Amino acid sequence: MAKDMRKLVRSGYNEGQYDITYARNNGTPENFEKALCDELISRIKPDSKLLDLGCGVGLPYDKYFSKNNLSITGVDISEKHIEQAKKNVKSAKYLVGDFFSKDIKGKFDAIVSFYAIFHIPRTEHKKLLEHIHSSLKKAGIILITLGIDSMKCDVNDNFAGAPMAWSSYTVEKNKKLVQDSGFEILIAAEDYRTERHLWILAKKK
User: Fold this and answer.
1) Which of 128, 153, 195, 196 is most buried, most CB within 10 Å of its CB?
2) Domain total for the chain?
3) Rounded to whole angstroms, how far apart are CA atoms 112 and 72?
4) Positive or negative CA dihedral for 110, 114, 120, 123?
5) What is the C-alpha to C-alpha distance for residues 190 and 205, in angstroms, rounded to an integer?
6) What would the pLDDT profile of 59-115 be if each residue is shown by its tens digit?
7) pLDDT digits (tens, 9 = 90+) for 166-183
8) What's the pTM?
């Protein structure tokens, strides 16, 4: 399932119009998101290294972090998104690959992943969180979004113009996965604006 899901997600973002459907080109996250991004920024030093897993086109988050003097590395499975991200945030470094790409070098002060982790099979979420933990410097910070419902693999045949897939656990299961992967949860907030997501800000133990 993992290979098939990745293939579907990659082709979905390459062939669909996600960047247009959800365009936010002003480079500023919405108020709910901005408050959490600012909380992360307040906990790390200027010029810190930040890794964005599933960075999309770099807007609005990477642009916002870049404006706040962070050194950004972004990775995304979609070649289309990376091509656009390089134009949108010229100060950042971007790579085509998945979350476990060996092209991601070094350790980071912070790692973020927005609306992306549920695009890999949920059976890999614990492995990913442990990988994120090992990729952080001491007391590093994460800010991630996860699903809130139990879905083994849910497919939408027309998400922004192309098929897309999601896989997630419940809120409580997700919190436990984060804690069991070596993190202290600082903030856990459910987002009910348009689509429901779980936001977690956590610190590496």
Assistant:
1) 128
2) 1
3) 10
4) positive
5) 23
6) 999 999 999 999 999 999 999 999 999 999 999 999 999 999 999 999 999 999 999
7) 999 999 999 999 999 999
8) 0.96
What is the span of the domain harbouring residue 104?
Answer: 2-204
Domain CATH number, residue 15: 3.40.50.150
